[in-house]
Amino acid sequence: MATKHEQILQYITNLEVGEKISVRRIAKDLQVSEGTAYRAIKEAENQGLVSTIERVGTIRIEKKQKENIEKLTYAEVVNIVDGQVLGGRDGLHKTLNRFVIGAMKLDAMMRYVEPGNLLIVGNRYQVHQIALEAGAAVLITGGFDTSDEAIKLADELDLPVISTSYDTFTVATMINRAIYDQLIKKEITLVDDILIPLQDTYYMTTENVVGKWHELNEKTGHSRYPVIDENMKIQGMVAAKDVLNASRHTPIEKVMTKNPITVSERTSVAAVAHVMVWEGIELLPVIDSHRKLIGVVSRQDVLKALQMIQRQPHVGETIEDLMTNGLNESSSDQGDSYEVEITPQMTNQLGTISHGVMTSLVIESGSRVLRKYKKGDLVVENITLYFLKPVQIDSRLTIRPRVLEIGRKHGKIDVEMYHEGEIVGKALFMAQIID
């Protein structure tokens, strides 16, 4: 039987897109406490089912698919620009196709305005109304309002008119940044991208006996299966070593590994790879927030995904990308060395290189050296920064990684960092190597 939390989430999912939601209404309709209703609404917001806007409330929005992740709803735009909704509230759930900056003459501007656009403009009442008539929403900058006629038209057409105190340039930058952040998130491969869904997953229940394992093994050729209870919640994992020498009539609960390591569909593939290498696991159950089984992910799937990620071009660059792209190999009598210039993005509030950047440079330089000895993917096992001096903006840093030990499955690197011939950092970097 579904829990109250699950019932509320299902209730929200079944609501019409654009419908308003309140804690009090859900608590009353489903006869639950307001605390339970509030937690479920927050979970729905995390899942992208609803959006909460100050002075408007919470509304059901269309959940964006992955291929549509670079688009924003008008509700999200309101939150990004700290805006106030002047009219057209019922259209906040809609997705905008692109935004147009109205810094030109009316005729020239309207050539670019199409249905589904967001026109960013100042206090030009005539433009507001014409844009709405063309099927575009309006974002008014500088804290200005609009005419009563435009508000009335916005309500009739369900096209939001939003006002923000920010200027046009700042608003465009904020929206661009929000889209760019989502593009970066899109590039990060998650378990959800590679998991074997429940309908294609072979699993056992706590009511099964060891004989069931043998049946599944003969049928599928697999040797590892998740074990669930009558509510689909994960209870354990069973593998060949667990059933070895066990009678076929032995309850599976007696031989399974209880409280297994699990991951969620939002876990990154990189994190899963680390868990699998560290724990020596071949198969991981994927569960939802209620510990219900929704699929499995195998070591083979993870390795394929990691290899595919390395071959794919990046759409959006992270700060780490910008930093490591500037890491250039240089010739040195003392072995492999790399040089990088310290840019403002790499420093802390004091203008010196941050610990996080130093750690990333250690990982990147150490990984490059290891890959010259061993092909394959690396999972960072341990990093120790045991000496660090301040390095300021515009300095050139020379990094010299030195292999201390390398085996079939691991590598150990000593990394030294120099500025103008003086040592400014030392670190020890250890990694697991996945063939």
UniProtKB/TrEMBL annotation:
UniProt name for this protein: CBS domain-containing protein
Record domain CBS: where: 256-318
Pfam families documented for this protein: 4HBT, CBS, DRTGG
Source species taxonomy: Bacteria, Bacillati, Bacillota, Bacilli, Bacillales
Keywords: CBS domain
Keyword Translocase set for record: no
Alphabetical list of SMART domains matching this protein: CBS (SM00116)
Entries under InterPro entries matching the protein: CBS_dom (IPR000644), CBS_dom_sf (IPR046342), Diverse_CBS-Domain (IPR051257), DRTGG (IPR010766), HotDog_dom_sf (IPR029069), Ser_kin/Pase_Hpr-like_N_sf (IPR028979), Thioestr_dom (IPR006683), WH-like_DNA-bd_sf (IPR036388)
